[in-house]
Design brief:
Structural class: mainly alpha
Largest sheet: 2 strands, antiparallel
Distance between the termini: 45 Å
Shape: elongated
Strand content: 5-15%
Helix content: 40-55%
Strand order of the largest sheet: 1-2
């Protein structure tokens, strides 16, 4: 995309801010250009947020029935998926997947709980509870 083709749709969620995007400048090199948004991006972002909200609500119901741990609900409520949470904590994906099971979550050591809480921006006590 060229410098003068960067979308400027004026999306409300940006407010007065601009998002930096890369575009080809007049000299043919990439440069950052401020954008006030792009409607296609807003649609895709809205769809992704709606999907995470759906996943969070489904996980909340499963956690209340004892089918998954509170960690799964909090992961989706914070708009993360398993690979993102694994990367944020530095734990293997299989370890995170195991912690989504209620029995395994109940046996987690304090340092693991703290790592999950830190990655999700929660306190450990909050991590263990459901809304």
């Amino acid at each position: 995309m060229k410098h003068d083709e960067v979308p400027q749709d004026g999306l409300s969620y940006y407010g007065e801010q601009r998002k930096a995007v890369y575009a080809v400048g007049r000299d043919g090199h990439y440069e950052t250009v401020g954008s006030s948004g792009w409607q296609v991006e807003a649609t895709v972002t809205g769809d992704a947020i709606a999907e995470f909200e759906r996943l969070a609500q489904a996980a909340l119901q499963r956690a209340r029935r004892g089918e998954c741990s509170p960690l799964e609900y909090h992961m989706y409520a914070r708009r993360m998926d398993l690979p993102t949470l694994a990367q944020s904590t530095g734990f293997w994906r299989c370890s995170v997947r195991r912690a989504l099971q209620p029995q395994a979550f109940a046996r987690l050591r304090a340092h693991r709980l703290q790592a999950y809480a830190d990655a999700l921006g929660l306190g450990v006590d909050e991590l263990k509870k459901l809304p």
